[in-house]
Write a structure and sequence with these properties.
It contains four helices and no strands. It is mainly α and about 100 residues long. It has one domain.
Length: about 100
């Protein structure tokens, strides 16, 4: 049983995802004088980012409810590390291929 409620774990996981993705995106916009690069203006980009934040929240709840994460810092870290956690978990599942996006920036 987690020491935090599931919604608190989810919130910290969500915030961790924002730290990992949102802050670098915000810095990029600031460096471009408030202009978002065209590849970041697509609907698909925003859907992918929202899904990434939700996955971070879900992982934080799952690990919290299993007793592996007991506090805010742990849940925040899970949100930040969500892509790496999914990659490692997918390596344990034969027959499921995870396609990695290329970083063209």
């Amino acid at each position: 049983m987690a020491l935090m409620s599931w919604w608190a774990l989810a919130a910290w996981g969500f915030i961790g995802g924002f730290v990992a993705e949102g802050l670098p995106l915000w810095r990029m916009v600031q460096q471009n004088n408030g202009i978002w690069l065209p590849r970041y203006r697509t609907r698909d980009f925003f859907i992918a980012e929202v899904l990434r934040l939700i996955i971070g929240a879900i992982l934080a709840v799952a690990l919290g409810e299993s007793g592996q994460v007991t506090g805010a810092i742990g849940a925040l870290g899970v949100g930040i590390a969500a892509p790496a956690i999914i990659d490692k978990l997918s390596e344990q599942l034969p027959g499921i291929a995870i396609i990695h996006r290329e970083d063209n920036g």
